[in-house]
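Morning - phenylalanine inputs below, output right after.
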Amino acid sequence: MLKDSIQSLMAQVNGIKANNAEELEALRIKYLSKKGEITALFNEFRNVPADQKRELGQMLNQLRQQTEERINELKEQFEAKQAEADKLDLTRTPDPIALGTRHPLSLVKEEIVDIFSRIGFTVAEGPEVEDDKHVYGMLNFAPEHPARDMQDTFFVEKEIGVQKPTDVLLRSHTSSVQTRVMTSQKPPIRVLCPGRVYRNEAISARAHCFFHQVEGLYIDKNVSFADLREALLYFSKEMFGAETKIRLRPSYFPFTEPSAEMDISCNICGGTGCSFCKGTGWVEILGCGMVDPNVLEACGIDSKEYSGYAFGMGVERITNLKYRVKDLRLFSENDVRFLKQFESC
Ligand code: PHE
């Protein structure tokens, strides 16, 4: 009987395995502690008849020795692993520090600002929470112009929870900065107005309730539409490549007269027509025009002495053209998998 027990334990012990030091200690207790299975066999040994003592004694000793050896062997392996993990090599070259990336909208905005700064434009900024006067009134919007309608403009409640007619609103374009500059500076004026704007639109891949614009304003004596065209042609070539062509289509804005929308030759197909430009070879990138004399007068600038041009573009739109970002929501979700792609820009 005792012989069978010894043999079966011997088979078990040879295959002892443990995943960590705790498991190994549990095994040592199981076999070798005072109440362990091998110790129990030694207790049984006392009752073994004298003629079997020699053989069984030897077997028992061998079992205990093998168990101890196996456990020690495993213990040494764990200790060696731990020592390796604890080892600090202070001379090792450090891993490169993961640098943050620039937001694509910031990259594009800065590129636009940089291009215009080379022809004398400086940056002007203004508040995002604005009044009706600077966003619409001084820009020749009629009092009932639909752009003010709740569908487009976010109005700010003066008292929380109380909806009263209010003239405080979130700016819907950065032309408001232009009115602020015109009322506080004397011509010549040559400013760029980058910033965030808000419109009450349902959020989708193609529209968002906020986006970014860069608008430009140049006022001086004898500023002409040809000056506007030259400045925009220069910008388009710098931004999209020397082969880029532009075309101006008549349009309407309350604050410019005449007004135009500008297309560039599609920078994907080069103007031959593709799905991006819907086969036309052209893509629209901005609105522009000659500042309406009414706007100049409303801002205290003599429209007989001065004239000027203005233009405005969406930064998201330009970014889409440069980097093919098709879903506007990516710009504000801050998903690092998206942002990291601009690491090398
Ligand atoms: N403010 C216009 C817009 O938000 C853009 C624009 C600016 C058009 C200046 C003409 C001149 O759509």
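Note: Strands lie at 122-123, 129-131, 168-170, 189-198, 210-220, 246-253, 256-265, 282-291, 307-314.

O.
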